[in-house]
């Protein structure tokens, strides 16, 4: 321990300044890295050299070595490792002299220019050395290098030596160290001096981990170089960014100008903030740093409340709301401190009444909330006061800006206040309650203030006030709802109600006033209505009202009758005191039905006051009839005045009349009523019954007999009807009768008085006379239509197409009585019975005509023939018995609807049977069923056609036509034409039966003449018939003969059997053959159709054999006219000029024509052609392809031939011997080949 001051002094002497300050860069505050050695952790002693914790440890080392050595640390660890060091190198205690392995050097490799660097050396066995090592035992010598640093050796202790190295130039250098003549084992040492640079790994910032909102946060930022020294050069590129839950605007950075900085900022929003510090675009060590900002102390003014309970409440109900405590910056509290207490209460603004609020803290996520509830009993406006007591005892309180309005609770009728008042009455005390007494018609006013069960006045009431009064009888405790009370209740919409009760019926009442189904205060209460003053129009005649019959009052003639008038007020209450006079005036009604003597002078009767509110009037009259009694007082009539009054007359019936409501026209099968009214001798109606009536209703003898389906019922029809009499006890009698048969019936009525039979001899019934001597008759008419009783008359169910027909439906009732009026709905539908599958329905046009006599004509018209099924419904229901089948027959043949079809109306050939078909139809398209209808066909050549010689051009050629009926309305017409040209075809028609108005093609017929019955006309192209050998002829010079080796030419004219030019058909062959006298076929023959001719063919034959020959020309295997032809083939010595040539009818040889075309020689005669042929070698060459078409034209004036198509010579000319052979036959080219050749 005594060596510590000595070591400190040695260091101070060696360096001059032992502690590093910001003005110099020595051993003080800048840590440096040192090279790592295997003995590093075990080196050091137990000396506390620089163990001041307030200072930065003393570091010695160089950049590039990972491990750092602290001198303080090494000294502290020496005590624990001293024993281990000895065990690690036990030879230290055995050798007295220093060896190479007895020391350890902490070498460095790199130093900063201008900044001292230190290299430490430890002597490991100083305790065992014979002589201690001092700094004088060391020898430092520079070996080589650009940088020549300054070396200073200092001894800090007996075993620790320090070499201070200061380099002023960049570059490398080498130096050696010896101790007592022994070179250290790592010597020489290589050192490289470099300039200092900013190091992000050595730079750092001191950042607090957490703080509170509103506190100023200090962050110390230190920038160092690679050697651990402060680096001021990083200030220009220093970048500090702060991010977090809120943007911090005010942030201050202080630059100490020595590479260190201080950052000041204040956060008001809780959360985690990040501080990112960078220089030269690179973050320092540990960046970004994180700071947790916590909320500060609570502030009641910033508290937030949510929920309906913090706005309004209802008295007596528990209301809740949520309170969120916050600090003064509005941040939510995350936790509550141990001593933190919150209190809240409500204070009523007007009365100062306080209400405690219960607060329970709850955790909601990371926030702390208070669940608050309270209950206020008094309605009003409350302020909320909030206070918080902190852990240190400080109390913070605040009044919330919002007010809580406590509304009144549910309406309570018991707490509501009722006030009763009146302006026309008074009250008395009965049974400790007020009983109000007032006149009928006066108002009893009510006023109700609604309150809740806590007595709070309600300012708005939605409940309905119910006011009900019960009438209390004097002799019974039972209550009944009072009549004549007008109860009105009005809701003022401010919590109050106003009502009024107006009574018209006198008596005692019990009034109930309820609000919210509860009796209000002071309810129920009694009130009594007393009668008002007498009101004449409300008074009533009591006796008369009890005997009202048919709107009047009865009385007896010659007897005194009394009427009592009851005095009443205007509400109908009986008045119990007298004091008035009434007068009754009796006058006969001017419109009464009576013939008795009636006085027109009014009769007056005065009243008698009974002093109890009633008045008696006595009246008497000797004339029966209808009267009117007027009861008046002070010129005012009582109720129902004038009162109708009927005075009864005599009881005996003098006559009867029939009431207007009687059924004098009844329906068969239904019960009918006949009401009669009995009259006395004065023709007054009897107002009481008691008479027995004997009516008799029989059918009149002169009634027309009705046609019934059952004649046996006629006898039953003549019997009297069964009747029933009902006494109405008012002078009228109802006679009920019923009949099933229609007709007019006589009614005879007899009567007897049942009241006069007692004690008297029974009398026979007397017949009653009808008023004015009239006869009483009733009529029975048919009942409603019965569908099953309806029948059909005139059953015409077959009609012709297009002809309207009808049948009749007779309607009857269920008793078979025919209806004699219309109005029954008859619906008729008919459709075709059989139709092809998939076709639409064919309906029949039906129309129903109402004859208004019970019969209905059903008219129907059909257009399509066939059987139809009808469906007839009566009043919407189908009647099977009336549904019949209706048949529509085809109509007459309509020429305009006939169809003409077949090839015979377009083309035909002479000599061949032609035909066409006539399909007959009526105008609706139906095929008639008529047979043997007459058709006549005529053919006439067209007007522009050249007539045949010997025929009249104006005459109509009648062609034999045969008409064959094929069934289904079809007629086949066949005819045989004989002339080839355009013909007009005329078809005439003579119908089996005629109907006027038919319209034909061109004209309408009125007679049976054929000339007026033309129905069809067309043009037919009749062509020539089949080619016939018997009419085909041949001509030409070749028929006489030719020269040997020269061709002979013959023209064949082909015609049909009627001598019309024709071309052979495809199955017909025109052939030619040359036969010698022995019957052998010789030479060659060719047949070709002449160009420009339709029926003319050229036959060319050639033979080298002289003598007699026959030329056989056949058509379809038959010889033509004069075939075979005899001819002579002469010698070839004859000159060509001697050949017969006909210029007018020149037959051109194909060989000659070919030669002319090749040389373009215009030839005008056959002689020139013969000369040209002789010049070419006597016909040694001929045309090969005769089938090739040659177009030729003949000029009537110039007689020349011109070739229109060029033909090459090498394909046309060949040796004649190679082409012509005896078997060669050339048939007529077909139409297709002719077209292609052209």
TrEMBL record:
Any matching Pfam family: Filamin
SUPFAM superfamilies for this protein: E set domains
Residue intervals passing through the bilayer: none
GO annotation terms (biological process): actin cytoskeleton organization
InterPro entries xrefs: Filamin (IPR044801), Filamin/ABP280_repeat-like (IPR017868), Filamin/ABP280_rpt (IPR001298), Ig-like_fold (IPR013783), Ig_E-set (IPR014756)
Filamin repeat residue intervals: 238-293, 482-529, 608-647, 720-770, 782-888, 890-989, 1024-1129
GO molecular function, one term: actin filament binding
Alphabetic keyword roster: Repeat
Gene3D superfamilies linked: Immunoglobulins
Name of the protein in its database record: Uncharacterized protein
Species this protein is from: Chloropicon roscoffensis
């Amino acid at each position: 321990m005594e060596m510590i001051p000595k070591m400190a002094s040695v260091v101070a002497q060696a360096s001059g300044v032992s502690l590093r300050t910001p003005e110099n860069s020595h051993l003080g505050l800048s840590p440096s890295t040192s090279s790592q050695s295997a003995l590093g952790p075990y080196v050091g002693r137990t000396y506390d050299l620089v163990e001041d914790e307030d200072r930065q440890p003393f570091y010695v080392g160089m950049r590039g070595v990972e491990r750092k050595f602290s001198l303080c640390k090494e000294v502290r660890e020496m005590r624990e490792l001293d024993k281990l060091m000895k065990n690690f190198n036990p030879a230290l205690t055995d050798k007295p002299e220093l060896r190479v392995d007895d020391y350890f050097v902490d070498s460095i490799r790199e130093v900063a220019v201008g900044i001292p660097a230190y290299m430490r050396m430890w002597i490991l066995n100083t305790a065992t050395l014979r002589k201690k090592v001092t700094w004088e035992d060391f020898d430092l010598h520079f070996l080589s290098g650009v940088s020549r640093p300054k070396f200073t050796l200092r001894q800090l202790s007996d075993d620790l030596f320090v070499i201070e190295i200061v380099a002023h130039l960049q570059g490398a250098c080498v130096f050696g160290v010896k101790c007592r003549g022994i070179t250290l084992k790592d010597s020489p040492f290589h050192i490289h001096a470099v300039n200092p640079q900013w190091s992000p790994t050595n730079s750092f910032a001191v950042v607090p981990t957490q703080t509170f909102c509103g506190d100023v946060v200090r962050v110390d930022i230190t920038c160092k170089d690679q050697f651990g020294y402060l680096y001021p050069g990083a200030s220009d590129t220093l970048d500090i960014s702060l991010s977090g839950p809120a943007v911090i605007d005010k942030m201050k950075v202080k630059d100490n100008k020595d590479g260190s900085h201080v950052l000041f900022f204040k956060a008001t929003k809780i959360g985690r903030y990040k501080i990112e510090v960078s220089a030269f675009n690179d973050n320092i060590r540990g960046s970004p740093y994180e700071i947790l900002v916590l909320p500060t102390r609570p502030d009641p003014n910033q508290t937030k409340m949510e929920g309906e309970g913090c706005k309004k409440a209802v008295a007596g109900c528990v209301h809740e709301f949520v309170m969120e405590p916050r600090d003064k910056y509005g941040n939510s509290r995350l936790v509550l401190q141990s001593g933190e207490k919150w209190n809240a209460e409500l204070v009523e603004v007007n009365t100062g009444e306080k209400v405690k609020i219960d607060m329970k803290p709850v955790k909601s996520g990371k926030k702390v909330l208070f669940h608050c509830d309270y209950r206020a009993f008094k309605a009003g406006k409350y302020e909320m006061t909030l206070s918080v007591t902190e852990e240190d005892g400080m109390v913070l309180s605040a009044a919330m800006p919002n007010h809580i309005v406590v509304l009144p609770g549910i309406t309570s009728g018991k707490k509501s206040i009722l006030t009763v008042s009146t302006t026309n009455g008074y009250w008395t005390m009965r049974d400790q309650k007020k009983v109000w007494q007032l006149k009928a018609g006066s108002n009893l006013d009510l006023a109700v203030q609604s309150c809740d069960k806590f007595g709070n006045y309600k300012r708005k009431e939605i409940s309905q006030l119910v006011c009900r009064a019960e009438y209390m009888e004097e002799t019974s405790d039972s209550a009944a709802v009072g009549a004549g009370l007008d109860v009105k209740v009005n809701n003022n919409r401010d919590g109050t109600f106003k009502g009024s009760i107006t009574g018209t019926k006198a008596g005692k009442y019990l009034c109930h006033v309820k609000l919210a189904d509860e009796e209000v205060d002071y309810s129920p209460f009694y009130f009594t209505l007393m009668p008002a003053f007498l009101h004449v129009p409300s008074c009533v005649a009591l006796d008369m009202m009890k005997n009202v019959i048919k709107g009047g009052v009865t009385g007896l003639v010659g007897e005194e009758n009394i009427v009592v008038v009851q005095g009443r007020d205007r509400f109908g209450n009986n008045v119990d005191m007298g004091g008035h006079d009434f007068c009754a005036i009796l006058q006969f009604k001017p419109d009464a039905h009576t013939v008795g003597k009636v006085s027109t002078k009014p009769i007056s009767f005065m009243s008698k006051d009974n002093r109890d509110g009633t008045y008696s009037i006595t009246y008497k009259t000797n004339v029966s009839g209808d009267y009117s009694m007027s009861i008046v007082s002070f010129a005012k009539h009582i109720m129902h005045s004038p009162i109708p009054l009927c005075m009864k007359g005599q009881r005996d019936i003098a006559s009867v009349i029939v009431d207007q409501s009687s059924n004098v026209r009844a329906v068969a099968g239904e019960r009918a009523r006949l009401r009669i009214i009995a009259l006395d001798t004065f023709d007054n109606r009897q107002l009481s019954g008691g008479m027995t009536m004997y009516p008799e209703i029989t059918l009149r003898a002169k009634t027309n007999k009705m046609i019934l389906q059952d004649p046996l019922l006629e006898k039953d029809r003549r019997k009297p009807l069964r009747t029933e009499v009902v006494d109405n006890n008012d002078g009228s009698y109802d006679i009920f009768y019923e009949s099933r048969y229609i007709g007019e019936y006589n009614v005879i009525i007899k009567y007897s008085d049942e009241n006069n039979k007692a004690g008297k001899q029974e009398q026979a019934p007397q017949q009653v006379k009808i008023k004015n001597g009239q006869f009483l008759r009733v009529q029975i008419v048919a009942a409603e239509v019965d569908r099953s009783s309806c029948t059909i008359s005139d059953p015409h169910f077959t009609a012709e197409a297009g002809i309207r027909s009808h049948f009749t439906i007779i309607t009857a009732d269920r008793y078979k009585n025919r209806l004699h009026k219309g109005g029954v709905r008859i619906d008729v539908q008919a459709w075709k019975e059989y139709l092809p599958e998939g076709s639409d329905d064919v309906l029949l046009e039906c129309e129903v005509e109402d004859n208004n006599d019970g019969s209905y004509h059903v008219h129907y018209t059909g257009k399509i023939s066939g059987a139809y099924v009808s469906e007839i419904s009566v009043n919407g229901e189908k009647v099977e018995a009336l549904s019949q089948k209706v048949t529509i027959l085809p109509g007459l043949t309509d020429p305009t609807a006939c169809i003409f079809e077949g090839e015979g109306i377009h083309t035909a050939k002479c000599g061949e049977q032609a035909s066409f078909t006539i399909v007959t139809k009526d105008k609706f398209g139906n095929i008639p069923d008529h047979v043997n209808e007459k058709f006549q066909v005529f053919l006439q050549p067209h007007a522009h056609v050249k007539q045949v010689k010997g025929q009249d051009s104006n005459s109509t050629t009648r062609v034999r036509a045969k008409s064959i009926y094929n069934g289904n309305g079809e007629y086949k017409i066949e005819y045989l034409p004989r002339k080839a040209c355009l013909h007009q075809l005329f078809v005439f028609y003579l119908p089996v039966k005629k109907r006027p108005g038919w319209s034909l093609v061109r004209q309408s017929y009125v007679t049976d003449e054929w000339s007026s019955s033309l129905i069809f006309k067309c043009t037919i192209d009749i062509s020539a018939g089949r080619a016939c050998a018997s009419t085909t002829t041949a001509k030409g010079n070749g028929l006489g003969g030719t020269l040997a080796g020269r061709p002979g030419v013959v023209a064949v004219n082909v015609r049909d059997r009627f001598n019309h030019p024709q071309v052979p058909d495809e199955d017909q062959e025109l052939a030619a053959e040359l036969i010698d006298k022995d019957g052998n076929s010789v030479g060659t023959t060719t047949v070709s159709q002449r160009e420009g001719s339709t029926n003319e063919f050229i036959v060319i034959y050639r033979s080298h054999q002289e003598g007699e020959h026959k030329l056989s020309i056949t058509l379809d295997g038959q010889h033509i006219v004069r075939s075979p032809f005899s001819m002579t083939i002469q010698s070839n010595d004859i000159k060509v000029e001697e050949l017969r040539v006909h210029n007018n009818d020149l037959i051109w040889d194909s060989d000659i024509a070919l030669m002319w075309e090749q040389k373009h020689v215009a030839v005008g005669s056959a002689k020139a052609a013969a000369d040209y042929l002789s010049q070419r070698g006597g016909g040694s060459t001929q045309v090969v392809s005769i089938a090739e078409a040659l177009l030729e034209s003949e000029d009537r004036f110039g007689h020349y031939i011109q070739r229109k198509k060029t033909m090459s010579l090498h394909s046309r000319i060949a040796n004649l011997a190679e082409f012509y052979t005896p078997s060669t036959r050339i048939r007529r080219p077909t139409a297709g080949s002719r077209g292609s050749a052209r």
